[in-house]
Amino acid sequence: MNLTLKIWRQKDASSKGQMVDYNVTDISEHMSFLEMMDVLNEQLIDVGEEPVVFDHDCREGICGMCSMYINGQAHGPDRAITTCQLHMRTFKDGDTITIEPFRAAAFPVIKDLVVDRSAFERIQQAGGYISVNTSGNTQDANAIPISKYAADEAMDAATCIGCGACVATCKNSSAMLFVGAKVSQYALLPQGQIEAADRVRNMVEQMDLEGFGNCTNTGACEVECPKGISLDNIARMNRELIKASV
After folding, report:
1. pTM above the 0.70 mark?
2. Helix (H, G, I), strand (E, B) or coil at 139
C-alpha cells in the first residue's frame, strides 16, 4: 500500500505544533500500525530528518503505552485493541491517515505523539493500593471465600491498562472510567475494605486536582476502551464515594 500520513509534530509542550504530511510506500497489509511508523522513521532518518516520536513498549496490547489518536479515534478505527494491535489491513491503498496525540489538558504533549500521562500515576499513588506490612512480618494469604461474581467483576476492572483512551475520547476529558476501574477492583474484594473510604476520597480528589473533566454518561469511553471496561465501574465508584462521605 501507498499511504499519505498527516502527523502532528510538536517540539515540546511550550512550542506550537502543526500537522505535517508524509508519504510511505510499499506498506504490507500484514504490518502493525507501529511497524508502519517504524518504516516511516527509517525513511526520515535515511534522509537526515528527525523521526516522529511516539510511545511504545510491549507491542502486545498489555502496557498501554502506544497511545495515538488515529483518524479521529483513540487507538484507531477498530474495537477492543490498542494501537500496537491495529494492523494495516484495516486501511486501503491510497488512504490518508491522520495521526495525533491524545488531547487533554491533564495530558500535556511532551513531543510529537507522546503525552505526559503521569497524572494517572499520581491518582494511583493517592490510594490505588492496599497497605500491607511485609517487612519481616510476612502474613498468610487472605483465606476469605470470594463469590464468583465478585472475583469476575474485580478481574474485569483490573484489566484496565491505564492507556488514557477514555480521557482522549471523552468530550469532557474525564478520567472517571480509569478511576472507577481502579476503585472497583478493590471495592469488590475483602482486602480492599479496610482502606475503602480513604481510597475513593483520595483518588477522586486527586483526579479533580489533575484537571480532568466530569462524566456526563456519553459512554464513548467504554466504546473506545481497548479492554472494554464497563461504565458500571463509574457507578460503583460514585456509590463508594457517597458511602465514604456519609
Report:
1. yes
2. coil
What's the CA angle centered on 47, arms 41 and 51, to 5 degrees?
Answer: 30
Domain match, 130 and 236 both: yes
Grid cell 510529537 is found at: 112
Last residue in a domain, options 76, 95, 111 = 111
Non-local (6+) Cβ contacts of 115 within 8 A are 67, 101, 102, 104, 107, 108, 109, 164
The dihedrals phi and psi of 23, each to the nearest 5 degrees, come to -115, 135
Residue ending a domain, choose from 66, 86, 111: 111
Contact 167, 174 (CB under 8 A): yes
The answer to whether the CB of 128 falls within 8 A of the CB of 158 is no
Q: Are strands 69-70 and 96-100 parallel, antiparallel or unpaired?
A: antiparallel
What residue ranges in 75-168 does DSSP mark as E strands?
A: 96-100, 109-111, 114-115
Structure-block grid coordinates of residue 63: 502496557
Question: Could you give the CA distance from residue 84 to residue 60 in angstroms, rounded to a whole number?
Answer: 7
Bridge partners for 7 per DSSP? 20, 99
Residues of the chain whose pLDDT is less than 50? none
34: amino acid identity, one letter: L
**Structural domain of residue 238, as residue ranges?**
117-245
Measured distance CA(40)–CA(30) in Å, rounded: 16
Say if residue 86 is in the same domain as residue 168: no
171-218 pLDDT per residue, tens: 999 999 999 999 999 999 999 999 999 999 999 999 999 999 999 999
Three-state DSSP class for residue 30: coil
C-alpha 18/C-alpha 90 separation (Å) is: 26
